[in-house]
Amino acid sequence: MSVTAFITHRDCHLHDMGSYHPEAPERLSAISDHLIAQGLDAYFTYHDAPLATFQQLKRVHTAAHLERLKRASPDLGIVHLDPDTAMNRHTWQAAMRAAGAGVLAVDLVLSGQAANAFCAVRPPGHHAERASAMGFCFFNNIAVAAAHALAAHNLSRVAVIDFDVHHGNGTEDCFRGDQRVLMVSTFQHPFYPYSGTESPAANMVNVPLPRGTDGEEFRRVVSDLWMPRLREFQPEMLFISAGFDAHYEDEMGGLRLLEQDYAWVTGQLKELADDCAHGRIVSILEGGYSLSALARSVAAHIRVLAEL
Ligand SMILES: [Zn+2]
Fold first, then answer.
1. Ligand 1 centroid to 258 CA: how many Å?
2. How many helices (H) and strands (E) does the chain have?
3. Of these four, 100, 143, 188, 203, which has the most CB atoms within 10 Å of its CB?
């Protein structure tokens, strides 16, 4: 059995964009409640997410973006940055924790204190671009983590894997053309944010999926289009943008994955990591809005990471 680090922080529950917003604090409670109910909680090592530093954030974000967000942070109430993305007085701190979780995950895995790590954090990150917040995202958590592995630990090749129902436009924006990074992704198309299909960079393997795509077709895409490119690239570490909103029960999107599909793809990635990356995987929560399906899918994902 390998040690899986579980990284979260109570500050991540305090970011709240309004009572009807699907990206809600209850998402994290649903995950931890289900892990306890399944008796899985005993198998992880728990860590509080630290705050990311400006130096860590500035590896992928512009200084102007950080200053604009900090200035927008309200003392009271909710301010909208776009129709979907809003800040309350805790958002800044929660976003710094969410990005810091990925940094700690990298340090734990690369120091050998954990075989791999899962970050149960919010706000999510993969829509956040170098210079802008959007789509429920403020800082690009997975990009900050991958950049930390490259800059602070001198890795030379890392892979980013994104199976959220939405295209990770922000991560693509951060790493487009960066030969140290290979990003593979699947996403429903056409669908928000309507990107990822026109002239992706050579280091992007973007696979748009039509509405209604099921697990069988998803597995075929992973086997035929992701895995050969990943094996050829020989990453030294894997970063998973783990969004679970492509689940059949998730009403945000129109794909039909089930928790066993998330377990399967995690197994494929774990095998690859064991072959070429000393098993190193950092996985960070992105989307997933049906609370029951989200919790079951996260459990299926981290069961495989922890070899339970
Ligand atoms: Zn999503």
1. 15
2. 10, 10
3. 143
Q: Is 47 a catalytic residue?
A: no
Could you tell me how many residues make up the chain? 308
Q: Could you tell me the two tokens for 142? A: 């997975």
C-alpha torsion 217→218→223→229, nearest 10: 130
SS3 137: strand
How high is the pLDDT of residue 2?
A: 75
Query: Look-up: residue for tokens 């990107």?
Result: 195
How far apart are alpha carbons 263 and 222 in whole angstroms? 13
Which position among 9, 47, 126, 127 bears the catalytic label?
127
**What pLDDT is attached to residue 276?**
97
pLDDT tens-digit series, residues 192-244: 999 999 989 999 999 999 999 999 999 999 999 999 999 999 999 999 999 99
- Percent of the chain that is helix, strand, coil (3-state, to 5): 40, 20, 40
Give 118-130 pLDDT, tens digit per residue.
999 999 999 999 9
Containing 228, the helix (H) or strand (E) segment is: helix 227-233
Report the separation in Å between the CA atom of 124 and the middle of ligand 1, taken as the mean of its atom positions.
Answer: 9
Give the C-alpha distances (Å, rounded to integers) separating 117 from 59, 169, 216, 219, 306: 21, 24, 27, 23, 9
286 Cα: distance to centroid of ligand 1 (angstroms) = 6
- Tell me how far apart the alpha carbons of residues 255 and 99 are, in angstroms, rounded to a whole number: 28
Helix (H, G, I), strand (E, B) or coil at 216: helix
Model pTM?
A: 0.99
